[in-house]
């Protein structure tokens, strides 16, 4: 429990964090990796270079200060980050290192603007928040380990099948090297994949959504090869059938809500991947609730898993499916391979969506922003809009989440 004077000092620092938060966290990461380069084996290097990770941390630190009298307001964010930390192997001993370097970064950037009592208040507050993370993450480690077929840390899975789904997207089917069963997962969850790339001194960990039936005997990840993506390129070019990948147990909070209301799945590009596991779960459900699946991509050449989605939709009367192509080819037009040409907008959504339900969004930040605003313009309750951003929320975060420092 924080003392009243501690709370007052933290509140006093809120304007400073609003103004200098990104500088503090950029300083923090530089300092952290200089002093503890071994932590580069855990953190995503690409997000560091793009500035997304410092911005996400700045949001979280600011949120903690802004909500210091009601920390329960940031529990959804804490839970999301805790899942991510569990999936990459963050341990209790990492927290004192992070805390020390964060406080030094605050002192370095703010200098005489940060009084000694204020710094002490942040030290006390960090200890409380770190204890919350450590406790929650240990619970998640135990849940992952104690579920049937579960494990703690990383486990070797064999690539039993590699399938090219489009010009830039490939699926990898994974089964346990030890022959033991895999645990089920919640539709929408992801696994972390840890790889060691030859000539690279550090290991790299990336999260990939599970894109198949949650009850299957295998896992499947469907990976887009990014132009400058070190890990995705390595997976596409070097990992073949018979290769072994080290992966975490499934994690993540972007999962289906239990409801009888309509479910709307809105995705773009490789954002299709968590939606497909949701779609398969909904197809197998005894409920006949209305399900609407909408996927946007450039054209049929970039459209992954098209036929798989069509098979599901065509064999279940309660599932509606729509494809939106922003740049269809002549062949796409001739064969009527899509339902809407151009970008998804509120005017078109109004013709296919119900007025209520649970809405799930996943895709590039611009797509997320536009769809979120379109849904709001149609009167959809923000609380009914669930979203997943691959990586820290550097480019876009819904307004309500941004106020709480969400780092989804």
From TrEMBL:
Keywords: Detoxification, FAD, Flavoprotein, Heme, Iron, Metal-binding, NAD, NADP, Oxidoreductase, Oxygen transport, Transport. Its EC number is 1.14.12.17. This is Flavohemoprotein. It is an enzyme of class 1 (oxidoreductase). SUPFAM superfamilies: Ferredoxin reductase-like, C-terminal NADP-linked domain, Globin-like, Riboflavin synthase domain-like. The lineage of its organism: Bacteria, Bacillati, Bacillota, Bacilli, Bacillales. Consists of two distinct domains; an N-terminal heme-containing oxygen-binding domain and a C-terminal reductase domain with binding sites for FAD and NAD(P)H. GO terms for molecular function: nitric oxide dioxygenase NAD(P)H activity. The active site is at residues 95, 137. It catalyses: 2 nitric oxide + NADPH + 2 O2 = 2 nitrate + NADP(+) + H(+); 2 nitric oxide + NADH + 2 O2 = 2 nitrate + NAD(+) + H(+). Residues 152-257 form the FAD-binding FR-type domain. Residues 149-408 are annotated as: Reductase. CDD domains: flavohem_like_fad_nad_binding. Pfam families: FAD_binding_6, Globin, NAD_binding_1. Heme b binds at residue 85. NADP(+) binds at residues 269-274. Its cofactor is FAD; heme b. It comes from the Bacteria. The record marks 84, 388 as: Influences the redox potential of the prosthetic heme and FAD groups. It comes from Laceyella sacchari.
């Amino acid at each position: 429990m924080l003392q009243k004077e501690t709370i007052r000092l933290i509140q006093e620092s809120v304007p400073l964090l609003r103004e200098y938060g990104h500088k503090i966290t950029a300083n923090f990461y530089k300092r952290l990796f200089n002093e503890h380069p071994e932590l580069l084996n855990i953190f995503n290097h690409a997000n560091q270079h793009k500035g997304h990770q410092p911005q996400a941390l700045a949001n979280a630190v600011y949120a903690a200060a802004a909500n210091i009298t009601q920390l329960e307001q940031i529990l959804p964010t804490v839970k999301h980050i805790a899942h991510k930390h569990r999936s990459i192997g963050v341990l209790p001993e990492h927290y004192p290192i992070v805390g020390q370097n964060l406080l030094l970064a605050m002192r370095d950037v703010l200098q005489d603007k940060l009084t000694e009592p204020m710094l002490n208040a942040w030290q006390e507050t960090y200890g409380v928040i770190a204890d919350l993370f450590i406790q929650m993450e240990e619970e998640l480690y135990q849940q992952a380990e104690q579920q049937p077929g579960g494990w703690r840390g990383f486990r070797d899975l064999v690539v039993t099948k590699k399938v090219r789904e489009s010009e830039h997207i490939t699926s990898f089917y994974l089964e346990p090297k030890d022959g033991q069963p895999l645990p089920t997962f919640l539709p929408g969850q992801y696994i972390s994949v840890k790889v060691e790339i030859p000539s690279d001194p550090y290991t790299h960990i990336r999260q990939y959504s599970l894109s198949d039936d949650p009850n299957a005997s295998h896992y499947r990840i469907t990976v887009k090869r990014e132009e400058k993506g070190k890990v995705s390129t390595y997976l596409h070019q070097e990992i073949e059938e018979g290769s072994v990948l080290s992966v975490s147990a499934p994690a993540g909070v972007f999962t289906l809500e239990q409801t009888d209301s309509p479910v709307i799945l809105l995705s773009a590009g490789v954002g299709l991947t968590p939606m497909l596991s949701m779609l398969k779960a909904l197809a197998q459900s005894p409920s006949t609730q209305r399900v609407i699946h909408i996927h946007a991509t450039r054209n049929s050449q970039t459209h992954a898993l098209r036929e798989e989605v069509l098979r599901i939709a065509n064999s279940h009367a309660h599932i509606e499916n729509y494809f939106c192509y922003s740049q269809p080819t002549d062949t796409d037009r001739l064969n009527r391979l899509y339902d809407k040409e151009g970008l998804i907008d509120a005017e078109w959504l109004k013709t296919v969506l119900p007025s209520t339900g649970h809405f799930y969004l996943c895709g590039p930040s611009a797509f997320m922003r536009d769809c979120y605003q379109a849904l709001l313009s149609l009167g959809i309750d923000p609380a009914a809009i669930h979203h997943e951003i691959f990586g820290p929320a550097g480019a876009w975060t819904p307004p309500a989440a941004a106020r709480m420092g969400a780092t989804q």
